[in-house]
Design a protein that fits this description.
six-stranded mixed sheet, two-stranded antiparallel ribbon, 41% helix, globular
């Protein structure tokens, strides 16, 4: 199956189980205060066996295609942990995860699981927006001597800030689906109106500009 087919199928999966929910006329408010027409909770994929299987197999196929040298999968805490574990199981690879901060007890690990210097790692993330949190994980892994091949994620907004950060850090991200595909599928499935499409793209291009609300 080609990447376009996977992207379309995953987009429709996420919309159907409301892991991605579009509400341009009643926007959500992010912690930063930004008004958003989209809400994304990919944890819901774990509670739907059919979608979960589709997502994890697609992640495995993506890693095999894009990062065939991968030796270890590392999930982001907490959303990426389950996806990294299931995908690593399908691929027969070891996995671990990176905490948001070092533990204050025991061995004070920030990386959980065995990671040897020079090992080729792929980071598994559920969602990428501005890229800040996943790049912190990449920095931690690199500081511990890992050769980070790149990131695989379920969904990306494709925000300019996120794309610029990833490029600056020299990190390749491959997502199963993205904002544009989700919006197109949402129109086709009747979740939103055709006239909402442009507003949603304007939000994606500049989330801090609330002109899309009008």
């Amino acid at each position: 199956m080609n990447t376009n087919e996977i992207s379309e199928r995953i987009a429709r999966d996420l919309l159907r189980i409301k892991a991605v929910f579009l509400r341009p006329d009643e926007p959500f408010t992010w912690a930063s205060g930004i008004k958003s027409p989209i809400y994304c909770d990919n944890r819901l994929t774990l509670t739907d066996p059919e979608v979960r299987t589709d997502v994890e197999r697609s992640l495995a196929e993506t890693i095999q295609r894009e990062f065939p040298e991968a030796e270890v999968l590392m999930g982001t805490a907490t959303a990426g942990i389950a996806h990294a574990a299931i995908t690593a199981h399908l691929m027969g690879l070891p996995m671990g995860y990176v905490r948001s901060g070092a533990k204050d007890h025991g061995r004070q690990n920030q990386i959980e699981g065995r990671l040897l210097p020079g090992q080729k790692v792929v980071v598994v993330e559920d969602l990428i927006s501005t890229g800040g949190s996943v790049l912190e994980v990449v920095d931690v892994l690199r500081a511990h001597g890992a050769d980070v091949l790149g990131i695989v994620s379920i969904f990306t907004y494709g925000m300019k800030k996120g794309l610029a950060r990833l490029q600056e850090a020299n990190v390749k991200n491959v997502s199963l689906t993205n904002f544009d595909v989700i919006v197109r599928a949402a129109v086709e499935e009747g979740y939103i109106r055709e006239e909402d499409k442009e507003r949603l793209i304007r939000f994606r291009d500049n989330p801090s500009d609330e002109s899309w609300l009008k």
